[in-house]
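Subject — a protein and its fold
Fields — amino acid sequence, structure tokens
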Amino acid sequence: MSRVAIIGGGPAGMMCASEAAHNGHSVTLYERNEKLGKKLFITGKGRCNLTNSADIKDFFENIPRNSRFLYSALYGFTNDELVAAINAEGVPTKVERGGRIFPQSDKSSDILRAMANRVKKAGVDIRLNSRVKAITKDEAGFIIDLGGKKERYDAVVLATGGASYTSTGSTGDGYAFAKAFGHSVTPILPSLISLETEEEWSKELMGLSLKNVTLNAYNKKKKLVYSELGEMLFTHFGVSGPLVLSSSAHMRHFDKKSYRLELDLKPALDEQQLDKEGLIIDDRANGGGNVSPMILERLSREPYRLTMGRGTKRVGTIPDAVQVGPKVCLINKYSASDGDLFPWGFRALGLGKLIGTRTWGGIVGISGPLPYMDGTDIRVPFFTSYDAKTGQWIIENHGVDPDILIDNDPVKEWNGEDEQLNKAIEEVMKELQNRKPLPPVPAPRDFSK
């Protein structure tokens, strides 16, 4: 039996510690923080995207560089084995879109608890608040220096993580330890990170979350380096979310190169499909953000001038891209916060009918976060809205009522039938029959007369 020291109590360190102990070794796990898995606790927006349900061979296709290096690791302990290990600790999991696996509770703390339980049951000696200052080696083995106190081991495993999120303890100690033993360390670069944008307008969309969009990333030579369909969001500094994090792994030279992002909001639709006279806005399950004023302002624009060009029958509008046809808006009980404010403004501006069920009814904003050590915070109600015409409070604790009340039958919805959308299409088609179109391009002028 060997005495093994593992430096770092994150997921890798915990799994290594429990496996080594199960194989008959005497294991000590050193963690500089007050608890294990501090970074794991905040992953996946606090939900912890544990792994993916894809076949192992598909994992290699999503590793940007030198995927063969991970061959032994991925086949030595597969995604299925990881899920089984977590399930065995009493934590059920679920598979979401794209094969992503999360704890059924949507709480990263459950994954952390499962991993910590494995370590404790294996009989590992856990040393919290214990930062390793140095590691040396002699003929008898390795010596761990804890800043005065020294302990001897037969083997040492570095599981200290990288140099990101220093507040969680990842300060790059492992690189220094590796260098001290003669290992070469390549320049470290950021990866799987949010991106800052040069443009300011994107920052004005802070809080807006997008689903089922395509993100394309190009390098300075206009070569496509990444393209994928998925989810993203705008932040106070630029963009983030799963798509953006994944794209950043393909942008390896921020110090030498610049990159351009292209966003396709409706990748399933072509230009002909988008050029329609009627418009259905789906506000269902809109959980909030800050973009309703911008979108409502655009929808309420009216053309005061029309444009035409030689060789085309297409008529342009000033302001640009005005939608002059009938509009309806779909709402339901999951339309909340800015998802409440959008349909309220839609009605207040007389843009069209609201179809569906009453919205959630919560527009009191929160601010002034008071942070806690575990990464959570407490917030207080800070601001809200009221009607500019009547001076009365709006929406809160009631929601926005539809003009046409219709709910989706769960069974029909499961089978792909959206009764609310069908009703919206029916209403738009009715209104299109009575719609007054824009004036066509007039006949050519005769200046000879």
